[in-house]
Amino acid sequence: MVCSSALLLGVNVFWSGFYISVVVIDRQQRNLAHMPRNIIMAASLPALPDKLFDIYLDAAAHAAFTGLPVTIEPRAGGVFRAFDGMLSGKILHIEPRTLIVQTWRSGNWPLTAMDSVLTLTFWPAEEGARIELVHVNVPEEDFAGVSEGWEKYYWAPWRTYLTHETAAR
């Protein structure tokens, strides 16, 4: 059962000689409404995974598809800033051409919110590549904005950039 406002209702089940208790926790009643949330999504883009990986980690190329200056140091401990400093973080780990793990923080978040962790994996797909995104610890206050922002500010502009780049050849 998947539910956004409650986790599950109290149930006792006897299974294989064990009682299993499942308790529903209402996010509002348990003061969990402000717990960080996670985003899991994938995007298909018309380019090879290696190329997408390189574009993401290249400041000039990254800025070319987002439309705003980007600072990115493609190494563990390197700084990341995008959208005029609205997004910031640090690179935690890189597996060449496959995986990027970084901290990620929006300027819209409360000062008390912890940094989130963003994991991007790059996979070959039939018509280019698939980027799988796992974004953990996104504050509830900006969860909808960040969730929608991935398509609006990253995937759609990146597709447009790649399409125009291909057409220009």
Gist of the model:
With 169 residues, the chain is α+β, with helices and mostly antiparallel strands. Helix content is 25%, strand content 37%. It contains three helices and nine strands, in the order βββααββββββα.
Give an overview in words.
- This protein is of the alpha+beta class and 169 residues long.
- The chain has 2 domains: 1-33, no CATH class; 35-168, 2-Layer Sandwich (Alpha-D-Glucose-1,6-Bisphosphate, Chain A, domain 4).
- The protein is built from 3 helices and 9 strands.
- Strands 3-9-8-7-6-5-4 form a 7-stranded antiparallel β-sheet.
- The longest helix is centred in the C-terminal third of the chain and has 26 residues, at 143-168.
- It is globular.
- It starts with 10 loop residues before the first strand and ends with a helix.
Helix coverage percent of residues? 25-40%
Count structural domains. 2
Low-confidence stretches: 1-17, 21-27
Enumerate the strands of the largest sheet in spatial order, edge to edge or round the barrel.
3-9-8-7-6-5-4
Number of H/I helices? 3
Q: How would you classify the helix and strand content by structural class?
A: alpha+beta
Brief descriptors of the model:
7-stranded antiparallel β-sheet; two-stranded antiparallel ribbon; 169 residues; globular; disordered N terminus; Alpha-D-Glucose-1,6-Bisphosphate, Chain A, domain 4; alpha+beta
Topology diagram in text:
Layout: E1 11-15, E2 18-22, E3 37-45, H1 49-57, H2 59-66, E4 71-72, E5 79-82, E6 87-95, E7 99-106, E8 116-125, E9 128-138, H3 143-168
Antiparallel strand pairs: 1-2, 3-9, 4-5, 5-6, 6-7, 7-8, 8-9
Helix pairs in contact: 1-2
